[in-house]
Amino acid sequence: CLISCQMKRRWQMLALSLSANLFSGLGCLLLGQISATDVITVAILQILLSIRHSRKGTAASWVENCTFFCLYTVGGLLPYIVSGTLGSFGWLDLLPIIAALLLMYSVIQKEEQKMRIFSLSNATVFLIYHAILKNTQFFAQLISIISIISALIRYRKNPSPQRRKKDHPGHPE
Fold it and tell me: What is the Cα–Cα distance from 138 to 129, expressed in whole angstroms?
């Protein structure tokens, strides 16, 4: 989580995001957060597919994106559907699904900065989720948010010096 957003290239960000999700999924599984674990498993599959697309120089199709959208939603609801307790599904159980959908949008972005913005949103939702559950992944998400913000600042696009002069109000032209 700390270094994936600091990478310059998309494929590097995806590879480290894959690792982060593997560890996060394991943590959620060990804590008994089945809904979050299901959603993270779908995220891992999407990241693997995105890495494959990056290697081929292609993008995910509309059908693939819609499929992942459905898988994230069903993955989050699956434990409740299987156990017959869908009526006990609450807003807290919705947070991992929302976070995963933000991750989905992050992964399908072609520009690294847009990936970071959606990653920031994803980390913020998971920060709230882990804060409510009072588990230690809260601290990882907090540090991740700080790292993403620093990466957004670090890789922001600055206008060239020539353009800055041209856009200056006193510049003749």
Answer: 8
CB 81 within 8 A of CB 65: no
CB 63 within 8 A of CB 49: no
Residue 31 main-chain phi, psi, to 5 deg: -85, 0
Q: What is the pTM of this model?
A: 0.74
C-alpha to C-alpha distance for 160 and 3, rounded to whole angstroms: 27
The answer to whether 79 touches 69, Cβ cutoff 8 Å, is no
pLDDT in tens, 114-140: 999 999 998 999 899 989 989 888 998
Distance CA 30, CA 28 (A): 5
